[in-house]
Structure formats: structure tokens, C-alpha cells
Amino acid sequence: MTVKECYEALNADYEGTLGRFSMERLVQKFALKFLTDKSYEELVQFMEQENYAEAFRAAHTLKGVSVNLGFTQMYQISDEMTEALRDGKKPEDGLLEKVTAEYQRTVEVLRKLEAS
């Protein structure tokens, strides 16, 4: 799988990301770093603890990482989670599951890129 194919599979912003990083190998390097980012795990942990202030921080970080990498769908769902958690509020039921589904899809595609 090429980097461009990876971004196409994610419906992500390849051209915009390439414009920011200037070189495809840098896009690949930083996209694969998403696999070691702990924001999602922290989000899940803090949601389980009902610590919505820290969950907000984790969701906000996940959102920032996603937008910088051009992962449009991951950005959109993490933005929705960030806004739902703003001011320490509990988000609506099912939102974490939506974040989880998109996160797992993103990781699955990135693992294919990593294996290439």
C-alpha cells in the first residue's frame, strides 16, 4: 500500500498533508506515528473513570493529531467528542463507540501501510 492509497482508504486529505510536510516519506513517517499516540487510550481510560475534564484533554489532543495528519474522518469524530466533553460534561451515549470505530478503522489501514 502506498501512502496515497492509505489516505484514499481513509478518505483523508493526502494533498493538504503532503503540502504541509513537503515530502511523501515525511507524511508516511508521521502518519505511522499515529499508531503509537496514546490520546485514544487515554480518552477511553478517562471516560471509564468518568473523568470528563481529562477525557476532554485526550479528545482534544486526538483531534489535533488527526487534523495535522489530514485524517479527516478521525478529526471530525474526535472534534465532536471534544465539543461534547467541553466544560467537563458527559457526552451522549454512543459517541465513544463512534470514536472507537473510526480509530480502529484508521489503525487497520495504517497497519497495512506499515506492512508495505
Put the structure in a nutshell.
The protein has 116 residues and is an all-alpha fold. The protein contains 7 helices and no strands.
Describe this structure in words.
There is one protein chain. The protein is mainly α. It has 7 helices and no strands.
Keywords:
elongated, 116 residues, mainly alpha, 76% helix, 7 helices
Kindly, what is the distance between the CA atoms of the first and last residues, rounded to a whole number of angstroms?
6 Å
Mean pLDDT value: 96
| Overall geometric form | elongated
The oligomeric status of these chains comes to single chain
Tell me the number of strands: 0
In sequence order, what are the helices and strands, one letter per element? Answer: HHHHHHH
Tally of separate helices? 7
Largest sheet data = none
Binned, the helix content reads over 70%
Structural class: mainly alpha
The proportion of residues in beta strands is: under 5%
List the helices and strands and how they pair.
Layout: H1 3-9, H2 14-21, H3 24-33, H4 39-48, H5 52-69, H6 72-85, H7 95-115
Helix pairs in contact: 4-5, 5-6, 6-7
